[in-house]
Amino acid sequence: MANRGPIHLKLVVLGDQYVGKTSVIERYVYGKFDSCYTVTLAGHFSTKFVNFEDRDVKLLIFDTAGQEDARTVIRSLYRDAHGILLVFDCARRDTLDHVTEWMELLKQNCFAMPEVVLAGNKCDLPNTFKAVNRLQGEELAGLHQIPFFEISAKHDLNVKEAFQSLVHRVLSIR
Ligand code: GDP
Ligand code: MG
């Protein structure tokens, strides 16, 4: 077949501030974890090439900053995305509650509803720190009919799997 250049996919990592969006991207793209918190610059993206189900795929992974005042900027980033990794923090219940709001924003603002995968980050934390258990994550994901992964950017748990699931879903509808 002609024209077998890489497929370009735009992925955006969304979720409240401090849930670990930047850390998840750094883990997936650069294979590292830095425990320092750095404020994310709007519109920053990383590139990753993957060979997926025999296709060359170039992922453009956009990081976002979750502050309220950045909502307009974020909207312009996600509205033409192919896939969204929607992240919450297992240690903060409100970040799970906000998932429904994020889904609503996507429905309202996207040109076409992107594929979404839900990720509960920081699952490495001991149970005493956890405000959300796996069942609650699964239940919410079920409600929105999206996959759910418990992940840890810190301990490198399921981060790759969550991105792969997202890419798989995006590619399977193209
Ligand atoms: P963002 O605001 O969503 O981009 O969040 P960051 O990636 O900056 O992470 C916020 C804080 O959570 C930082 O102090 C990170 O070191 C920490 N963090 C991120 N991912 C994990 C994780 O998987 N486990 C733990 N225990 N801490 C994490
Ligand atoms: Mg960040």
TrEMBL record:
Q: Which domain of life is it from?
A: Eukaryota
> What Pfam families does the record point to?
Ras
Report the GO molecular function annotations: GTP binding
Task: Kindly indicate whether the keyword GTP-binding belongs to this entry.
Answer: yes
Which CDD domains does the UniProt entry name for this protein? Rab
InterPro entries assigned to the protein according to its UniProt record, in alphabetical order: P-loop_NTPase, Rab, Small_GTP-bd, Small_GTPase
Alphabetically sorted, this entry's keywords are:
GTP-binding, Nucleotide-binding
Full protein name = Uncharacterized protein
